[in-house]
Amino acid sequence: MTNTVAHTAFNQSELGRALIDRLDEAAQYSEPGPGVTRLFCSQAHRQVLPLIGRWMEQAGLTPQLDAAGNLVGRCPKAQAGEKTFIMGSHQDSVIEGGKYDGMLGVALPLLALEALKREDVTLPFGVEVVAFGDEEGVRFPTTLVGSKALAGSVTPDQLEAQDAEGISLREALIAFGCTPEDIPATAREPANTLGFLEVHIEQGPILEQRDHAVGIVTALTGIERHKVTLSGKAGHAGTTPMNMRHDALVGAAEMVLAIDSVLQNTDELVGVVGRLDVHPNAVNVIPAQVTFTIELRSPKATIRQQGRDVVTAALTEVATRRGLALNIENTYSADAVACADWMMTALEQACTQVSQPAERMFSGAGHDGLAMQALTDIGMLFVRCKDGLSHHPDEAITAEDGEAATRVIMAFLQQLKHP
């Protein structure tokens, strides 16, 4: 490869400012309200694609929307079928999220590739950058649809998952201009894939504590999600005696506290009851049914299983004591996965090359690598975020840290050698 710096190269401060400007522009494609709300196959998703497509073209890639709602940019070598290294992250957000979760991992590698292009650097392998359509799993009760498509692990039942309006994922993809029946054909060949790397904000406080711009991820946490349906009996709120009620909401409230107690008292286990729906949700009617979600996370599968068993026993006890019907449905499960040693080493070498201290660290959040590890080796670079805050409108990074991370990726790509 060549490494001749042309007069059009970005200088040492332009990359960080350009990155922040791009992320600010992408954040405009959102539903109204605080922060960024951009759900899978939504109007905001549709509107942001031309912007990402322009970034891809500026980086020398050709953008294409695939059957699973991913926007994929490929360089000529990748299009020709040469061995390819994949980078990327998700474009979707949580409700009222921030500018950087997900979209940073789309904009930053594209900016790094554009900078290398300006410096007349030619990489000896193909490159793909993917803006995954769905990672958060907010609109549909499934997650990682985009990365699972590349890994070849999307199942027919996932396509039948429905959103709150009763629209199935299959229907949403068709309305978005995709062809769900072609999803199996989007799976990449493992032998032709060199690896997958994602850049992401840390979503935690460790890098701030270390005063480091970036960190190298060792593994991604295991995650499981459950849908709990608690059924009681509706009745008049003024005429039904208190001791004769089967109030699903009171039972659910007790269950939420029981779940919190388990989480508070179990090391290496975290979780949340993140969504709760009440029916009939009327001011003067005893709640007949409550549906809520439970998410459990731990780097150790045995701890998650033990926590799940204790939670299930506690919920069963509450339901029995209050005369309520209980149904618990597992909607998602993914074990923890390790990042490849060779990629962690390559990232460390890249950090050293651009004078950035970087230590290894565990990810307490799940990412697209959970699905991509079924296809290829994975790696991840964390970028410091203010106060460790994520999934919030005040989520923030600095231009200086964005600059540092972009330089790391540029160095990583230039010295990348697959084992």
TrEMBL record:
Alphabetical list of SUPFAM superfamilies matching this protein: Bacterial exopeptidase dimerisation domain, Zn-dependent exopeptidases
Statement: the UniProt record of this protein carries the keyword Membrane: no
Protein name: N-carbamoyl-L-amino acid hydrolase
EC number, UniProt record: 3.5.1.87
Enzyme class: hydrolase
Cofactor binding, per record: Binds 2 Zn(2+) ions per subunit.
InterPro entries membership: Amidase_Cbmase, Bact_exopeptidase_dim_dom, Peptidase_M20, Peptidase_M20_dimer
Domain Peptidase M20 dimerisation: 221-318
Residue ranges of coiled coil: none
Chain residues that bind Zn(2+) 1: 90, 101, 200
Family classification: Belongs to the peptidase M20 family.
Single annotated GO MF: N-carbamoyl-L-amino-acid hydrolase activity
Assembly behavior: Homodimer.
NCBIfam families xref list: hydantase, PRK09290.2-5
